Amino acid sequence: MPLAQPVPATNVRPGLVRRLILFCKRWLGMLLLAGLCLQLYFMAHSLALRWLEPGSTAFQRSALWHILQGRQDTQGRHWLHQPVPSGAINDHARKAVIAAEDNLFFQHSGADWRAIEQAWRRNAQGQSRLLGGSTITQQLAKNLHLSGQRSLLRKGQELLLSWMLEATLPKQRILNLYLNQVEWGTGIYGIEAAAKHYFGVSASQLNAAQSARLAVMLPQPRRLGLAPHSPYMNRRTQVIVQRMPAIALPSPAP
């Protein structure tokens, strides 16, 4: 009796491969659709910021969560955040922040590519994380929607969000949003809370030197805010005060 021939597996494998390809295509399609919906949400949110002040940002909610978990020391402070309208912010504060953080703010379209290139060069020289290069618009985009994680993907999303903000909002509105939401120390957010905490005045009453001192804190507010009158802070404050007269603000501010 002749031996039975084995059934060839050629008819099974192509079917399995086709199912795997179809499965991957479906998941990829769903991921792309989810990504598109997320970007549409970000665009709609950016447009709404023309008229609405965000109650909180992703950065603030993350910081609050860390405080509740005991991962940040508030040193007995309360949560201080009081957004104010444009007219309640002194122009000294606007000029100081631009002079300290982004002197090309009114010239670029959301990203300072020369600063980004310089940051990449520093990274290539041995730094272990993506450094610097962020404009005021990028910092606002990051604070509004993103985590503190540093990665190329997050940096790409930050740039896209910055483009959305620039496409939907006037420059002065972006600056006002930034001033109302940025961190000025553990549990201290916005120019009004910072002015009252450090100087006992409102944001409309800040003078040039006070505004410059607040602006100097911004890169590391939790550390620099602990010693706002240190020798380093005094030197940097003088530098920013000298730069401020060169900053021209559009008028009127929205």
From TrEMBL:
Q: In which pathway does it act?
A: Cell wall biogenesis; peptidoglycan biosynthesis
Please provide the Gene Ontology terms (biological process) for this protein.
cell wall organization; peptidoglycan biosynthetic process; regulation of cell shape
Catalyzed reactions: [GlcNAc-(1->4)-Mur2Ac(oyl-L-Ala-gamma-D-Glu-L-Lys-D-Ala-D-Ala)](n)-di-trans,octa-cis-undecaprenyl diphosphate + beta-D-GlcNAc-(1->4)-Mur2Ac(oyl-L-Ala-gamma-D-Glu-L-Lys-D-Ala-D-Ala)-di-trans,octa-cis-undecaprenyl diphosphate = [GlcNAc-(1->4)-Mur2Ac(oyl-L-Ala-gamma-D-Glu-L-Lys-D-Ala-D-Ala)](n+1)-di-trans,octa-cis-undecaprenyl diphosphate + di-trans,octa-cis-undecaprenyl diphosphate + H(+)
Q: Which GO terms describe its molecular function?
A: pentosyltransferase activity; peptidoglycan glycosyltransferase activity
This protein's GO cellular component annotations are: peptidoglycan-based cell wall; plasma membrane
Q: What class of enzyme is it?
A: transferase
Listed transmembrane segments: 20-42
Q: Where does the record place the Glycosyl transferase family domain?
A: 81-244
Question: Acetylation: is it a keyword of this entry?
Answer: no
**What subcellular compartments does it reside in?**
Cell inner membrane
Its placement in the membrane is given as: Single-pass membrane protein
Keywords of the record, alphabetical order, are: Cell inner membrane, Cell membrane, Cell shape, Cell wall biogenesis/degradation, Glycosyltransferase, Membrane, Peptidoglycan synthesis, Transferase, Transmembrane, Transmembrane helix
Q: What is its EC number?
A: 2.4.99.28
The record's listing under InterPro entries reads: Glyco_trans_51, Lysozyme-like_dom_sf, PBP_transglycosylase, Pep_trsgly
Keyword field contains Transferase:
yes
Q: Where does it primarily localize?
A: membrane
| Job of this protein | Peptidoglycan polymerase that catalyzes glycan chain elongation from lipid-linked precursors.
Give the family, as the similarity comment puts it.
Belongs to the glycosyltransferase 51 family.
Q: What is this protein called?
A: Biosynthetic peptidoglycan transglycosylase
The organism encoding this protein is Vandammella animalimorsus
Q: Which gene encodes it?
A: mtgA
